[in-house]
Design brief:
Elements (H helix, E strand, L loop, with lengths): L1 E8 L8 E3 L5 H5 L7 E3 L2 E14 L3 E8 L3 H12 L4 E12 L4 E14 L9 E5 L5
Parallel strand pairs: 2-7, 3-7
Antiparallel strand pairs: 1-5, 1-8, 3-4, 4-5, 6-7
């Protein structure tokens, strides 16, 4: 199963009081964004597939991922297909930020992307699912 969505949406305050600005992922993406792991609920021990495409566009951090045929990938696919999970999120380290409440995130090291139940950014969601076999 493949899916597409946004792991971050620019210029919207998240539940933690942060705002990701356009360009915040540029350095990480230039270093090879496809190497970023795809995880289940930010759990490092629960990879669920791989990222096929990762890029900033005018809306945010766009992700296309493929879920694996392993047990964790199959579980994630079933929950995604049923609509029980539709959130996306990302793990990061802050390189540059300004302000407080909201804190503007200007430069981030992208560590991982996750399918999640409750994303910090409510608009960070899967918007398309394709039931396709793995290559």
């Amino acid at each position: 199963m493949r899916f597409a969505g946004y792991a971050a949406v620019f210029d919207r305050t998240d539940r933690g009081g942060d705002v990701v600005r356009k360009g915040a992922f540029a350095r990480s993406l230039a270093r090879g964004g496809r190497a970023v792991p795809l995880l289940w609920q930010h759990e490092p021990g629960r990879p669920i597939g791989r990222i096929e495409y990762l890029s900033e566009d005018t809306r945010g951090l766009r992700v296309i991922g493929r879920l694996s045929a392993g047990a964790a990938g199959r579980e994630a696919a079933a929950l995604l297909k049923d609509g029980a999970v539709s959130g996306l999120s990302f793990g990061y380290r802050v390189r540059e930020a300004v302000g407080e409440n909201p804190r503007e995130l200007l430069d981030l090291d992208l560590v991982e992307v996750s399918l999640v139940t409750l994303p910090m950014q409510p608009r960070a969601r899967v918007h398309a699912v394709e039931d396709s076999p793995s290559p």
